[in-house]
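Chain entry —
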Amino acid sequence: MTTTGSIRRGYHHGDLRQAVLAAALDVIATDGPGALSLRDLARRAGVSHAAPAHHFKDRTGLLTAIAAQGYELLAAALTDAPDLRERGVRYVRFAVAHPAHFQVMFQPELYRDRADDPELLAAKELAAAELRAGVVTLPAARSSDSPGSPGSPDPRDTGVAAWSMAHGFATLLLTHNLDAPLDGRDPGEVFRALAGLLGSGQLADIERE
């Protein structure tokens, strides 16, 4: 947790931008994006209310920077994952490690349109490429005959399904809806087991019984 004192020390070392970002993430993690105020962050940093605006222009600019940073961190977390399931596990672990980023990234109404911010656009494309890379490892996606053949899933649909599962699990986790079902177990390991259960078709077998 970033403290006011550490923010001031960061500012005196010329790192006001990172200090404001860190303070903003603390606020979001505790009270949500709606509680964010550049004036309050300036007060925490012990600088004039105009100082944060010098780096981010306005509240939307700050949230845009947070979203871009979040997508960069997500891309890094997914890099070199061996398969789609492991990418899902890392997605969940990313959400646990960076809950404030996660809150902002998937609420595009909070930040500038990505076409207006090259940094955000590049970060989102990087993360999307890492997510797509997991689908490419699937046998159906690797086969040139599979796409469009009868009974063969579209790789795009497979990607959406996998993303929906990981994102839904992470969202339920961060909103404490899984506290009782997890009962203290490691979220990443629980997700890995669930993904394996779904992938093996065991749930369908159970439904037929």
Observations:
- Residues 4-56 form one domain.
- The chain has a mean pLDDT of 83.
- The chain has two domains: 4-56, 61-208.
- Residues 183 and 205 are 26 Å apart (CA to CA).
